[in-house]
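Chain A, query sequence.
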Amino acid sequence: TGIQMRFLTADIGYEEVSPITSVPTRIAANVNWGFDLRVGTRLELTDRIAFGAVGNFGWLSVTSEVTNLVPLPNPVSPPPVIPAGTLLATVDDRPQTGMARFGFGLTPSETLGVYLDAEYFEMRSDLEGSLGIWRGLAGVEFKACAHRSYFIGSSVDDEGEFTFSVGSLAKVTSCLDASWSYQHNAYPEVEREFGTFNQLSASAAVRF
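Chain A, predicted structure.
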């Protein structure tokens, strides 16, 4: 059983054509503050089968600024043209996310591990309403030796969005672990708004 708490801030910029006015705009979203709380547990059912469950809750404060990418006619008052790069609107939102995930891990041999999980993810926003997604996940981990392992996994949700990931974990020393991973379509729940994210990450963990 474990608990993890993260605090974060971020800046996200993207361009889109307004479906209402057909005007190309740039959206600059600033995450003023945010936190993410995760709680999980693992139970060894047999020597070869384990059950795990994890819950996650996140809350963000986001301010978005909308600017036009091309000059616009100004029918209200002088000047007759709104120049490109003008701030058109500022929007505040407080999106919340929640996730529940559970599944089974199988170890058919000392070098092979298989997991099968089910996950429910929900996002709520003052502006966009709510979105709930069910997702199935599967993966395989292969331990090449005592100090290195590789994994591959994928998922699909009830909207038909597919993800794929690969990575490796290495025990560099007795107290230092290093890992890397690549994930295609890392955030499928926001692909419609932001497009497809391909995420490459690396991390190191020190044990005391």
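The first strand starts at residue 2 and ends at 17. The chain has a mean pLDDT of 88.
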